Known about the structure:
The chain has nine helices and no strands.
Amino acid sequence: MNKNKFFKFFLISLISIVFLFLILITFNLANETENWKFLGLDFNNKYEIISSYGSLIGGILSFLSILFVLISLVQQQEQIRNEKDEKLIDEKIELLNRLKLLSSFFTSAIDNIELQGKQMKQFFEKEKEFPSQMNQMYFTTNKNFSRVIDLDSTSIYKAINYNFKNNNDWEKIFLNIYSIFDFYSDAILELKEKHQSQINFKVEEQRKISNDLMQFLNLGANLVDEYKINIGESYLDQPWSNLVNEFTPEYYKYLEECVEKNEPTDLRTISNLYLLPFLENAMDIRQEYGYDNFGSRSLVNLSSYIRKRINELEVNCVYYAENIEKQYNEYFSIENDNSEKLKKYKKLFDEIQN
């Protein structure tokens, strides 16, 4: 029993005693009157007794009023203390709920990091193996990183301070949480913007190379026509005409196979399996016969230029893929330090809740 409850009990007991005393006095006064009747007091013959009784009653009632005031004050003080205790309990629950909310965000963030990491890993592995193909990297649309940043940082600070006040590193925990969520909120956005920029660059380069390949085929077709016009039926006996005539159907056959298999054309395949043999044979023909007057030099120069453009594109794409791999290893792999910290903090928060 605390001090206020004891005092309240004492006052109520005292009031009860005073009431009993008052009843006893009144009973004795009634016995002083012969042939007593209800409200039939003899004011003429019992004036002194009644006067004394009235004075006594007045004093007792005054004393009782003081006691009632004291009880009222005690009750008010107890009510204020109870309201304060309830407020503290509500604040404690609110601070604990903040930790529960953060713990939920930790779970989502860890899953989001690992999911994005899988997308990155799939991308850079394909990009390094097939750099000239249009490989895609998909991005998660979860906004929990920014949601944590948008939370009231003061309330989060209080929640961590209150629940981990016995932990010397509680302030470090708070700073690390915001540092991690700040980083990933910006990192994923930056990663997405750079990837879109890389895709745009790659599409544009592939378009230019495709235009160059079409120009190469047109030059080849013109060369064969020139031989047919100037040489006649034996035009395919000419080395340059024969070289182009063998290249063109093989190249179109490859394009048709890609369409049938529903696969994109691979510039590396075109460069290594079609343009490179063409150039090697062209160099042999040039060594023996030299260039002709129907565009063979232009074909050789253009095919060499196309291979160079394809190689530059692949070098750029491989470099980009290696950069993505580096970011993956440091920040998005399952074993990365930030994910491990979030897992550690989530475990601490869950233990507090239990």
